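[job 0417] fold request received: Phosphotransacetylase family protein
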Amino acid sequence: MPKLPKHLLVGSTEAYSGKSATVLGLGLQLQQRGLDMAYAKPIGTCPSESGTGEDEDVRFITQALDLASNRVRPTLFCLDEETIQSQLASSALSYRQQLETYVQGTGEDLLLTEGPGTLEEGILFQLSLPQLAEMTDASVLLVARFRSVLIVDRLLAAKQKLGPRLLGVLINDVPAAEIPMVESQVKDCLERHQIPVLGILPSTPLMRSVSVAALVQALDAEVLSRPERMDRMMVEQLSIGAMNVNSALRYFRKAHNMAVVTGGDRSDIQIAALETSTQCLILTGHLPPKDEILSRAKDLEVPILSVDLDTLTTVEIIDRAFDQMRLQEPVKVECIQHLMDEHFDIERLIAELSLQPAVTA
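[job 0417] inference complete; emitting structure tokens
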């Protein structure tokens, strides 16, 4: 009978804290040390557009870690409206028995499980993070996005709910100016309360960026220029071109890797944007740009998107895309690997889990 693997459940205090990126970074580090791991995401939250029912995060992480099929556990269900309505109607869906076999293993050293987006998500199905940890005898690594020193309150509350199963925390997306305070005061306070701080990751614009392709999808935009560049162009900032051209130029020159939203009839703003660090132009009102704009954008390899929306609606959709940024760009894989190598104490994690790495990095 295959040995039972160690089980690490990665959760977060709020959605979009960097949980999937942490799972990927951990997986890469563990593989570098010769550890055989399996990956699971019981609750699907990012269904594939293909309609296959496959979670996009599962597909991407499986591919990025080059995992064999017997090292990937199936998603139990997708947390969508249809599944929730079925549960509300009958409370008939039960996954406890499936979870008993979920952690049996096929010879791997560690089962790395991506948990729900919050401590409460999934509680309708009796699969919240604390419930999952208890049912599968898992240790928990909690990812928390830094917003203020109130992060301490959230993590102390999480400790109360998870108890000794809380193996440690990773504090993510810390602004450069706040890092000294977090590394001293916040970390010291948490460690005094028996909450090990295994990593403090600095804010990185690239990890908070979205691809032009993702904006095209979110906006249902028509691509007028350089569609082949959409997957490679990463947007880190949003600028709105609604002022006079001189003010716009001063504004644009301060930005980096931006998307510029402006009216399709504002050729002066469009030219100004193309002369600065612009990753794409987003033209509102479904008005076509002039031929010279299209020609210049083609020469500079800048995609132009046209949307049948007003500026306010366009900006709101893009803001949501930034808030719900996804990992699924290869450049982000390299970035998270570097961040985890530099700022996460993988050796402490391995020791806490009593794993025996085959190689020493």
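[job 0417] notes: The two ends are 31 Å apart (CA to CA). The chain has 14 helices and 15 strands.
[job 0417] exit 0
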